[in-house]
Structures are given as structure tokens and as C-alpha cells.
């Protein structure tokens, strides 16, 4: 093995055992001070113990048995497995984690030297939002899973890192822990030190070039452009929720303005003077309700500050898909939201991004059945937003990184609309009477039916449409 410090698996196991027992371990091996201070170990269990399963469920923890705190953004783990075939693609999901699924990433790679029990790995990483792991502490549960992209059962009995008898957490050296590119725990399959680059990049799942798809580059003249309606869009008008009772949905505030180069972008404007009567919001949604499983994507520009006037209003800037609530606690209701609150709201004091998956709700008295991921930071500027939905998970991405993943019971039961809106939660964020306005912009929207695409594949599809001069296409059949 290469790198500044290595021990054998036997020594690592002995160190872990004596440390756990509270014994002095210095006699086992003389560790460099830096290694001794950052001893990270991996614990593993599984909740899917069969030789085959709908999905593999490697639940993991990391324990810091050293003497100093470790930023988790510097740490990765690898779980090694044998693919069911050379062309089989896999999907990662996080069901629940003490550190928050939004702070955990999962990517797949190919081993440089395949063995009888491993030719792929799942690499788990952490965003800065996961924070640091103090000495003597562990991450707590990371309830992780992965599954075949074609939703067929997978075989895991021949996987290097799998152990069906591990139904409670214990040290497991067939999962490796890396910090700063160096292995600090575990043993990889022979000839596959994680510091060695793989021979191939991670394999993207195959896509169907003929899959039904919607793409719109928003090259319209105004909200009254006949092409907008002909292309299946409805611009909201009048009054009604969500938001401040008495506010007005204004079609005139859905405009199409110059973007980069010759490209146009859609602008959703919100204006208010601090009163309901003086508040105008904007919304556009697909006329047809025909979107369910597949990949949803849009490039959206969020704004933290108004174009003029005082700041502080509790505005909501969105991209989402949903079905109607036909009755309280309607079991066929569903919704998957990106909701950015640049000035907070709903009890939050400042900017926060929510991705929320809904099963149903009762409006009065309020009772919500949903789950969400969140990040308390500014998202001002352009961002690539993506939602993938299949029969087992809803996964949210921001700028190519997994933001959150939600499973049952939140998967949609019926077809949905696609929607963008820009609205005001209440009148308490900024109480002044000076008029102000906020903008949310949308570069494009894309949907492909029954295909779970990677962010890179979405970017390639959008680039291909633009290279071909295709400003609009919709081959998605009506439901």
C-alpha cells in the first residue's frame, strides 16, 4: 500500500479491540502522532440480510477513536460489491441519517482490479453541513441503500462487503475509511487500494434515446403569447392559495427576458407594498397532468434581495411537481418541492432551502404527512435542480450533488403537473409600505418519462437540444 501510514488488518483489529476495552495500545505499534490522533473506524450492519434483495442496505457508522476532531468533509467510506452484470447500473439512496441525508453523498465506481467478490464500490462522502466528528464520538446511524436502476432484484451474497449475519452494529474491516485520500481503516479487495485511481470512471446508467420527453427553453414573447398555451402551459390568474389571502396572481408578471447570448429566460416577479391588496404573485404550470416517474430538471435563478425597496419579505421561490388534493387526507395526493426561502419564514429566521416530499395533508385542522431535507444557507444565483422518481425513491439534486432522498410512503401514486411559482407566505417579514419586487428566473425545464438520469446525462440532453436548435418538444403522452 502507498501513503504516509499503513498497518496490517490484524494490527488495526487489535488496536480497535484494545481501545474498546480501555487498554493501553502503545505496545502494539508505534503510530505517528497524526495517525494516532485521527483513528477512524467503520461499523456496519444490514437490514436486508437475504442472498438476494430488492435493494442492498449497508447501514454504516464511523467512530472517532482518536484524540482530535475530524471534519467529515475530509472523510469517505467504500463499500465493495460484485455487479450483477458488467452493464448493470445502480442507484444510491439515503433513507435516514443522524447527520442528515442532505449531508451524505453516494457515488459508484469501478475497481481497477476486479476480484471474484468485487468489481464496483459505493463511495460515501459528506458535505460541509455534516460538521465534524469529535474524539470519542460516532456519526450515529446512516441508513443507506442502493438498488438496480432497472428495479430488478440484486444478488448480494457474493459481495465483498456484505455480511447477512450482521444485524447489529459492529466493527467491519471490509469497509474502508479514507481521510484525505489515505486509508485509515479497513482492507480493500486485493489490489484495489482506494488511493489508486480506478481504470474507468463511474458508469452512467444506459438511457433510452426514444423515451418520451418534455423540453422547453422558454423562448416566448409574453404570458399572452399563443405559443405558450399551445405548448401546454397555463399562467395562473385571480386569487387563491398558497400565500397571503387576498393577494393576486398576475399573468403580467410572468415575462420572458434576455438571458445569456441569444437565450431567453422566464422571469417570475413578485411585488408587494406590505398589504394583501398590494401583493402580486406569479405562477405557471403545465396544463396536462401527465408526469410521474422519471427525471425532472430545471435551471433556476434564486434572488435573496429585491430589485428595489426594503428587503425582508417571506417570499418562496419554487420548482415542483404535484397532484390535486381532492379531499382532506386524499391518499392520491402527492408533491415534490424545491422551495427556497431567501428571508426565512415558517419560523426560520433567514435563508433556507427545503426539498419536501408529500404523501397527503388535511388543511383544517392542519395535519401534514410529509418529509423533507433542508440546508440553511444562501442559494442566490443560478442552480441546476433535479428530481428523480422511480418505484423506490425520490432523489433531489442541486448542482449535481444529492441534496436529499425520500422513499415510501411519499412516492407519487398518480400523474402530476409541473409548476413554478413565486409567492409570499405572510406580511410579517417586512412591514413597511414602500413597494418592492423580487425576481425568480427559469432557464429551461426538462422531463423524461420512466428514466432515472444522472445530472451529467441531463446536462448532455439539454446541450443536445440547444445544439440542434430545439426550443420546445413534448412527446410525453397524456395520462
TrEMBL record:
Cytoplasm among keywords: no
Keywords: Hydrolase, Signal
Biased composition, class Pro residues, residue ranges: 195-209
InterPro entries tied to this protein: Beta-glucanase-like, CBM2/CBM3_carb-bd_dom_sf, CBM3, CBM3_sf, ConA-like_dom_sf
GO molecular function: cellulose binding; hydrolase activity, hydrolyzing O-glycosyl compounds
Domain CBM3 per the UniProt entry, residue ranges: 36-190
Region called Disordered, residue ranges: 185-211
Position of the signal peptide: 1-35
SMART domains: CBM_3
Keyword field contains Signal: yes
Residue ranges constituting the GH16 domain according to the UniProt record: 149-453
GO annotation terms (biological process): carbohydrate metabolic process
Organism domain of life: Bacteria
Protein name per the record: Glycosyl hydrolases family 16
Species, as recorded: Actinacidiphila glaucinigra
Amino acid at each position: 500500500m502507498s501513503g504516509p501510514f499503513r498497518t496490517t488488518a490484524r494490527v488495526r483489529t487489535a488496536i480497535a479491540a484494545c481501545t474498546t476495552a480501555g487498554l493501553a495500545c502503545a505496545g502494539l505499534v508505534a503510530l505517528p502522532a497524526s495517525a494516532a490522533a485521527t483513528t477512524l473506524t467503520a461499523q456496519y450492519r444490514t437490514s436486508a440480510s437475504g442472498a438476494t434483495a430488492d435493494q442492498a442496505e449497508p447501514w454504516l457508522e464511523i467512530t472517532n477513536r482518536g484524540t482530535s476532531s475530524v471534519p467529515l468533509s475530509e472523510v469517505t467510506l467504500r463499500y465493495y460489491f460484485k455487479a450483477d452484470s458488467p452493464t448493470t447500473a445502480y442507484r444510491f439512496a439515503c433513507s435516514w441519517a443522524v447527520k442528515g441525508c442532505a449531508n451524505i453523498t453516494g457515488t459508484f465506481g469501478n475497481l481497477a482490479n476486479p476480484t471474484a467478490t468485487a468489481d464496483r464500490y459505493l463511495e460515501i462522502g459528506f458535505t460541509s453541513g455534516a460538521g465534524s466528528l469529535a474524539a470519542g464520538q460516532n456519526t450515529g446511524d446512516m441508513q443507506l441503500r442502493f438498488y438496480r436502476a432497472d428495479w430488478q432484484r440484486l444478488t448480494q451474497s457474493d459481495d465483498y462487503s456484505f455480511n447477512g449475519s450482521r444485524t447489529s452494529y459492529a466493527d467491519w474491516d471490509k469497509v474502508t475509511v479514507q481521510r484525505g485520500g489515505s486509508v485509515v481503516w479497513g482492507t480493500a479487495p486485493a489490489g484495489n487500494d482506494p488511493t489508486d485511481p480506478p481504470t474507468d470512471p463511474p458508469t452512467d446508467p444506459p438511457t433510452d434515446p426514444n423515451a418520451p420527453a418534455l423540453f422547453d427553453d422558454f423562448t416566448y414573447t409574453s404570458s399572452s403569447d399563443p405559443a405558450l398555451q399551445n405548448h401546454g402551459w397555463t399562467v395562473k390568474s385571480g386569487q387563491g392559495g398558497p400565500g397571503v389571502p387576498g393577494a393576486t396572481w398576475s399573468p403580467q408578471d410572468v415575462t420572458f427576458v434576455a438571458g445569456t447570448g441569444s437565450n431567453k429566460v422566464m422571469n417570475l416577479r413578485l411585488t408587494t407594498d406590505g398589504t394583501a391588496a398590494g401583493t402580486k404573485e406569479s405562477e405557471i404550470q403545465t396544463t396536462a397532468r401527465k408526469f410521474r416517474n422519471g427525471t425532472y430538471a430545471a435551471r433556476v435563478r434564486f434572488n435573496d434581495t429585491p430589485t428595489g425597496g426594503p428587503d425582508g419579505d417571506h417570499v418562496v421561490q419554487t420548482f415542483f411537481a404535484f397532484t390535486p388534493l381532492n379531499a382532506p387526507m386524499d391518499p392520491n395526493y402527492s408533491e415534490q418541492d424545491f422551495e427556497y426561502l431567501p428571508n426565512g419564514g415558517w419560523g426560520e429566521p433567514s435563508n433556507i432551502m427545503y426539498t419536501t416530499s408529500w404523501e397527503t395533508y388535511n388543511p383544517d385542522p392542519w395535519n401534514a404527512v410529509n418529509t423533507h431535507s433542508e440546508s440553511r444557507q444562501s442559494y442566490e444565483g443560478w442552480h441546476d435542480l433535479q428530481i428523480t422518481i422511480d418505484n423506490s425513491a425520490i432523489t433531489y439534486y442541486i448542482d449535481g450533488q444529492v441534496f436529499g432522498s425520500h422513499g415510501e410512503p411519499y412516492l407519487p401514486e398518480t400523474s402530476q403537473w409541473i409548476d413554478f411559482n413565486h409567492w409570499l407566505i405572510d406580511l410579517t417579514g417586512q412591514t413597511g409600505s414602500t413597494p418592492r419586487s423580487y425576481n425568480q428566473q427559469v432557464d429551461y425545464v426538462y422531463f423524461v418519462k420512466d428514466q432515472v438520469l444522472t445530472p451529467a446525462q441531463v446536462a448532455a440532453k439539454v446541450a443536445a437540444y440547444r445544439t440542434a436548435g430545439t426550443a420546445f418538444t413534448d412527446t410525453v403522452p397524456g395520462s
